Amino acid sequence: MKRKPLVIILDILLVLAVIANFVLATDFTSGTSMDPTLKDGQPLWVMRPTAMRLLHVNYNRGDIVIAKNDVDLNNLTKGELIVKRVIGTPKETVSVGRKTVYINDKALKEPYVVHKMDNLYYSYGGVANGGQVFNDANYKATTKLGSNQYFLMGDNRPASADSRWIGAVKQSQLQGKVIVKLPFNAHNLSGRLFGQILVYTPLILLLLSFLASYLYDLRAKSAKQA
Predict the structure, then answer these.
(1) Exposed e or buried b for every residue in 15-34, given b needs 16+ CB within 10 A?
(2) Which is catalytic among the residues 33, 95, 160, 209?
(3) Rg, the chain, Cα only
(4) What is the Cα–Cα distance from 54 to 63, expressed in whole angstroms?
(5) In which domain, by residue range, is 96 found?
(6) For position 35, what pLDDT does the model report?
(7) What's the mean pLDDT in 37-42?
(8) What pLDDT score does 1 carry?
C-alpha cells in the first residue's frame, strides 16, 4: 500500500530525532555560576560522551561541559550535575592566583569572564576567605593534572563552586560537551514547554507517525467500502 507523504515525512523526522537523541541530550543551566555566558534556566544541547567517542570529539580548553560532582562539600551534593568551563586539560599544571589563572606558568586570557575573580574573598577549597592564604598577592594554588583529569571553573568566578572547591575532575565524571545554547529560559512557561518538547520529541514524533498511519488506513478503508 502506498504511504501518504505526511506519514513518510513523519517517519523520516522520527529517524532523525532518534539519531539526534543518541548524539544529543537536553539539559538546563541551574544557578548563575556561568553568568553571563549562560543564564539560569537556559536550555542546552549537550553531545553525549558515547557519541563523542564514536565521532572522535575531544574535550578542549574553553569547552563548556556537564560534569558529575563526586564529593559532598558545603552546597554541593555528591552526584549533582554541574555546568562549567574547561580551564585545564590532562597533564597541565594549573595555578590559581588571587585574580589570575595560569596554565604551565603562563597567564590565561579569559575574554568570557566578566565577573572577575578575587580569591581573597572566595571560599577556596570550601575555606572562607581562601583560608587567608591569598592575603599574599603572589600566592598561587597549584594543581598538577593527571592523564585523565580536567580543571573546571565557572565564568562567574566569585559565585562558582568549581575545581577550586572540588579539585580536578576525572574524564569519567564528564557527561558531555555543550554544543548549542538555546535562547530560552526554563523558568518561563514558554521556555519550560519548549524544553519538554525537546526532551520528548522522539516520542511525540512516534505518536504522530502512528496516528497519521492509523488515520490514513482508516480513510483508505472507508474509501474502498464506498
Answers:
(1) eebeeebebbbbbbbebbbb
(2) 33
(3) 23
(4) 19
(5) 31-187
(6) 95
(7) 93
(8) 47
Strands (E), the chain: 24-28, 43-47, 64-68, 81-88, 93-96, 101-103, 106-107, 141-144, 149-153, 169-170, 174-181
145 and 46 assigned to the same domain: yes
Reply yes or no on whether 84 is catalytic: yes
| pLDDT 10s digits, 159-180 | 898 999 889 999 999 999 999 9
* CATH number of the domain where residue 130 is located: 2.10.109.10
CA angle, 92 as apex, 88 and 29 as ends, to 5°? 10
| Region at 34 (left for phi over 0; alpha for psi -120 to 50; beta for the rest) | alpha
Helix axes 201-225, 5-23, angle to 10 degrees: 160
CB atoms closer than 10 angstroms to residue 167: 16
Per-residue pLDDT tens digits for 74-110: 677 889 999 999 999 999 999 999 889 999 999 999 9
* Residue 190: CA count within 13 A, CB half-sphere: 3
Single-letter residue type at 200: Y
Write the CA distances from 39 to 7, 75, 163, 174, 183, integer angstroms: 38, 20, 20, 21, 9
| pLDDT over 80 at 42, yes or no | yes
Do residues 109 and 209 both lie within one domain?
A: no
Judge whether 160 counts as a catalytic residue: no
pLDDT band for position 188 (cuts 50, 70, 90): low
In total, how many domains does the chain have? 2
At position 22, the amino acid (one-letter code) is: F
The active-site residue out of 4, 30, 78, 84 is 84
C-alpha cell at 170: 576525572
Mean pLDDT score across all residues of the chain:
84
